[in-house]
Design brief:
Elements (H helix, E strand, L loop, with lengths): L1 E10 L2 E14 L2 H4 L2 E6 L5 H11 L2 E5 L3 E6 L1 H10 L5 E10 L3 H9 L13 E8 L6 H20 L12 E8 L2 E7 L21 H11 L7 E3 L6 H10 L21 H13 L9 E5 L2 H13 L6 E5 L12 E5 L9 H18 L3 E7 L2 H4 L8 E7 L2 E9 L4 H14 L5
Parallel strand pairs: 7-8, 10-11, 10-13, 11-12, 13-14
Antiparallel strand pairs: 1-2, 3-5, 3-6, 4-5, 6-9, 8-9, 14-16, 15-16
Bound molecules: S-adenosylmethionine.
Length: 428
Amino acid sequence: MQLILAVFFRNKFYPHKLNILLIPTLNLSLPNRFIVILVAKTFAGCESILAEELAHLGATNIRELTRAVEFEGDQALMYKANLHCRTALRILKPYTTFEASDEEMLYENIQAIDWSEHFSLEQTFAINTTLNLSNMTHSQYVSLKAKDAIVDQFRDKYDDRPNVDTEQPDLRIHLHIYDNQCTLSFDSSGESLHKRGYRDYTNQAPINEALAAALVITSGWDKESTLADYMCGSGTILIEAAMIMRNIAPNKFKHRFGFETWKDYDAKLWKSIYNDAIYNEKPAGTIKLYGSDISGAVIEKAKENIENAGLSDTIIVRKNPFERFKKPSDSGTLICNPPYGLRIEPKDILAMYQKMGDVMKQELKGWTCWIFTGNLEVAKFIGLRTTRKIPLYNGPIECRYLKYEIYDGSKKAKKQNTEEELNSDEEL
Ligand SMILES: C[S@@+](CC[C@H](N)C(=O)[O-])C[C@H]1O[C@@H](n2cnc3c(N)ncnc32)[C@H](O)[C@@H]1O
């Protein structure tokens, strides 16, 4: 919102005519300055990383919840969180809370909101519901009931109704019902933030982008030294690492955010936040990120993704089995998400993990290696001593992020080998 100062004056050449000069003054943009509570959703185990990301962006009163982080900020911060948070899945703006112990109560409370304030008849909407410890037990039925309440209100008012679009709605509404208390939020992200826009979703299931970013951040990689992934698949870990290294906003490629179709959308504010992010990107330096995979087809996919992300000058990938991996520099960081063995024979998967340990020990002296696996049993067959074991979830799969420091030098290696023998069947 802009304040315009109107000045009336008479021109000496046309004294009979009253002139008006409109002077734009303060850009009030009132909604931008309002501090609101926001909630960023994430994976179990990533809450503290996300809390740090938000603090870095200027969020206040940050509170870590389960698979979410609550924080306070204004509209600008909400836009920034969508653009910059690498480990967030969506940014919700809670609007109201009410008791909803049955469908009728829910319907009435939803009808009490003036929906024309939030979207128009021509726009589309969608409702997602999560339920926990409540009288109502069917989330889809709750969503349906809430949809009816909104549609009925529009019908009463305009004799017409807005359409539902579950794919790309103009307004995505979240209902979180816990212990019969409903929190209704608006989803400012739209499609989940892990869908960055550089990868297509038609190939085999690669690691989630937000999770890949969490792995890179957790590794403590210095953003300067060599980083490799010797089973890189579609290249997600490398792409996320390259974006971190070059200070590229993870969601710069996203076509549309939920907030862009909100009634209070401030296009000017968003544009300035987006332009700042582009301005602060770092140029490509010498190549430090390397990936390989046994599958040529997968490497072609990785190259496509890397190109889509504009990182062909930053990452090199090639077809190569990890068994023949050669370290590209004396020291560096390996981050790898090997197969968990769900589709491979158990005998093969044991041998693969054993071989991974051998390659680390023989080829990666001087390196820090991180293995992210959902197969806790076979992870023991790596046979090296872990220096950290971090529990994380890949969707429903309980995983471990395992750190191995592969010392260079005979003394340390000897000590390490003894410890490895002692710890080879350690608890994960
Ligand atoms: C879980 S996927 C990795 C997914 C990857 N992080 C991504 O984002 O696409 C495991 C990968 O290991 C690769 N792989 C299996 N055996 C291998 C081997 N012996 N050497 C190198 N890569 C191998 C597979 O082709 C697959 O792409």
